[in-house]
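Sequence only, no structure available. Ideas?
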Amino acid sequence: MAKKLIKRFIPSMETIQAQKGLGIVNRWLHHSNLWHLNRRSASGAFAVGLLIAFIPLPCQMALAAAGAILFQVNLPLSVALVWLTNPLTMPFVFYATYHLGAWIIQPAPLMNGQHFSWPWIKNYLLNWQWIGLHWREISEHLEAFLLGNLLCGAGLACLGYWGIRLFWRYSVSRQWQRRQARRKL
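Reply:
I predicted one. Tokens follow.
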């Protein structure tokens, strides 16, 4: 059930290991848990992938792959889950995470009543002198952004981990009940 659904979308171990650009990383890709799909590896992959998806760095896929190798969870699934924050969704997700962090930290206002617009960006955010003078206020907003990302990533990682474990258990018990019902016929 859940295993068949997930296996339809992820590549096989042979497909990934045949890639020539992997170089020395290829030796770490032979552990069986990185490719098998069971309750532990799928739920761990959801936790790793969703946590890494909220790290605002351009190398999320590499970090997810490293996390999957480190924790020996399903590699393709954890790498695929970082695409929750893709270039289309990233502005909305990061805007929401910033507001969560700002709600907790409550940093001082940055724009002094001015509206966020292109001229404001050109005059202030692209002016290194202004950034140097207002670094304390900017760092408070950066802290709010990073705190919101950490909270959302950790929260969704926990929800994903336990949600997949429960879904997997439900799927297996349902399959078992169907098998029992067929035997009675």
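Residues 135-184 form the longest helix (50 residues).
Hope that gets you unstuck.
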